[in-house]
Amino acid sequence: MLAGPMLATALTVLALSTTPITASAAPASLDPDPFYSQTEAATGPVGTPISVRRAPDLLTFPGSAVWQVNFRSLNSANNPIVAVTTVIIPPNHTPDGPLLSYQHIVNALGTECAPSRALYSSDPRSTYREAVALNIALQRGWAVALPDHLGPTSAYGAARLGGQITLDGIRAVQKLPELGLTSSPVGIAGYSGGGMATAWAAALAPTYAPEINIVGVAEGGVPMNITKMANALGRDPHPAFGLAFAAALGLEREYPTELPLTSQLNGLGHALATDLTNACTTQLLITGAGRSALDVALSTSMLDNPDAISVMNDNSVELYPGVPTAPIYEWHSATDNLIPVDSVVATMARYCAAGATIQSVLGPNLDHLTVGAIGLPAAVDYLQDRFAGRPAPSNC
């Protein structure tokens, strides 16, 4: 599912009445495992590993070793946080062989829905059914890192945060000699909501993490401008409104002062927010099905709140002036009705004009997620060529 477009519906409640702030979004429940705790151990430069542990083997990835690494990163207020990434190393991986950081599509307000937890869950509401596709990369001998890119508070919708956590996770695993990834060439990939974290990581890397040797990026179906989506999307009831509402609540967790959403909710809105505090995708969809912003807000007005607009702009990669230096494979459908395709086209054109190497591919005119699945094999082949050192194609 997609974070950005669904977020836009709920963000129509962010420039609401002048009711004083009396509440804020409920935080996700603290994980009882101290490995996930935000502690004083989060010191030193970003990307500093705090601890590493061998995790149980997974039938999803037969024969592969699974490790979990927690590390120091920063949230959107530049405060230190402890973030986590899961590293899967296949038996045919050679020391300093390829490393793929794959950003899963994660729709969640609960920390138990993050990849490091959900990979071990038997609850069908939180399992990642697409995880088995990562065996395509593992069979090629690539190590795969799966960051919990929503962060320790499950700040669903905070795409820039996801990019930072992705890069800091790569830094951390490359600082651990026992993983054999110290000098590995790095590819990053993701689709839809995972594509947002990937696109942000690619854009931030030249200044935020220039030391990482990112040889290729594969990003698809990326919601590149959530401000535009918020202004364009209507307020009618929507079957996936629960995702929108959850994303707005997730952004409030990350920007509590700028987005005081909870103080603008009516009784139903507060009830839904409580129900969704620790929810994963299935519960988000069921709880919010058929609702709209008008159902949950005390009142509505134009999206003219400067703080709300600033937050949305700050999480819209189209509006970020930085340009990736790693070559990019980008794919989307020309008729995708969940993302502003013109923003994708404009962003790629801006990158091209700045000298970036871009291979932009139009998928078939099918639904958003189907195009993602259809385009994945070509994206993997693109990264294979980058790992092999072949020149990157460009259709700029």
Automatic annotation (TrEMBL):
Keyword Nucleotidyltransferase in annotation: no
Signal peptide: 1-25
Keywords assigned by UniProt, alphabetized: Signal
Family matches, as SUPFAM superfamilies: alpha/beta-Hydrolases
Cited PANTHER family: LIPASE 5 (PTHR34853:SF1), PTHR34853
Full protein name: Lipase family protein
